[in-house]
Amino acid sequence: MPTLPYLHFQNGQCAEALAFYKEVFGGTDLQVMRYGDVPDVPDEWKSGPHLIHGELTIGDGKLMASDFPPGFEGDPQKAVSVMQSAPDVETAHRWFDALLEDGDVIQEMTANFFSPAFGMVRDRFGTHWMIAAMPARGPGA
Amino acid sequence: MQPIVYLFFRGTCAEAMRFYAAAFGSEEPEILAVGTMPPEVRSQMPPMKDETVMHAAVKVGAGWIYASDDMGDNVPAMAGCNVSVSFPTIEEATRVFAVLAEGGEVRMPLEPTFFAPAFGTLTDRFGTRWMIMADQPEAA
Fold first, then answer.
1. Would you identify the CATH topology of the domain A82-133?
2. Is residue A35 exposed (0-12), middle (13-18) or buried (19+ Cβ within 10 Å)?
3. What span, in angstroms and rounded, lies between the C-alpha atoms of B134 and B10?
4. Contact flag A4-B41 (C-beta cutoff 8 Å)
5. What is the ipTM of this complex?
6. Which structural domains are found in chain B, ordered by start?
7. How close, in Å, is residue B86 to chain A by CA atoms?
8. What is the pLDDT along chain A (141 residues), one digit of tens a residue?
């Protein structure tokens, strides 16, 4: 399995966030497991939308995520972004605009010295994204 | 298309990325420091030290981690996310877990679980949060 971002969501929003990312990126094979699906969990974990694990296939890649357990506030995402490269400028703009719905622009999408289209957005679930049209790889990637 | 984790450090990016390359047995990380930028690019940027990292990439397991130093003044510690890395064998997972944990904090010791033959979590000494696991034998 590749090295991948494992995101954590507050307020039981993980399932909703993953469904949103499925729509934005045209993801496939969304799998979710709720806290209530696990044997021997506390009674207060048995209802509610909280996911103990979820994963979404995006192209040939994978994103994983979970909710903080019911009753735990947890932390918003900090000091981390998810870098997602798009096959072309048009797709990069489409993803950026879709993620921006009720979210915030961190950096407007523009051409720069490493990508014909690069921008940063925090979506409405608190996930920070770097969206880049290829070629946008790191120096060695 | 694989989503890639992008980490932000408070001036320790280069040191952290070299530590990860050593821990995972990868080649030296690619590090793009401010000091290497051409003057015409640098003149457009806010004042920064030569050694501040603008972008870095290191191979980690079967994927990559990207990172930079955050130019902001008030950079929080990493939260709300882990870097998930899985290994074909328990031995490899155990070795890397121990190296990453040096000077850091083990949050959940590496142990068998219902979903993996070995799984553990830690925060390393640079503040990066990790989930380390071994693949199920049939998936290896």
1. 3.30.720
2. buried
3. 31
4. no
5. 0.90
6. 1-73 (3.10.180.10), 77-140 (3.30.720.110)
7. 6
8. 789 999 999 999 999 999 999 999 999 999 999 999 988 888 888 888 999 999 999 988 999 999 999 989 999 999 999 999 999 999 999 999 999 999 999 999 999 888 899 999 999 999 999 999 986 444 444
Return residues 74-103 of B near A (CB < 8 Å).
75-86
Nearest to A3 among B64, B77, B115 (CB): B64
Looking at the complex, report in whole angstroms how far the Cα of residue A68 sits from the nearest Cα belonging to chain B: 9
- A6-67: CATH number: 3.10.180.10
Does A79 reach chain B within 8 Å, measured CB to CB? yes
**For chain A, which residues make up each domain, given as ranges?**
6-67, 82-133
Name beta bridge partners: A72.
none
Instruction: Report the alpha-carbon distance of residue A127 to residue A124 in Å, rounded.
Output: 7
Is A6 close to B78, i.e. CB distance below 8 A?
A: no
Length of chain A: 141
A60:B2 CB<8 A: yes
The two three-digit tokens of residue A4, written as one number: 């991948």
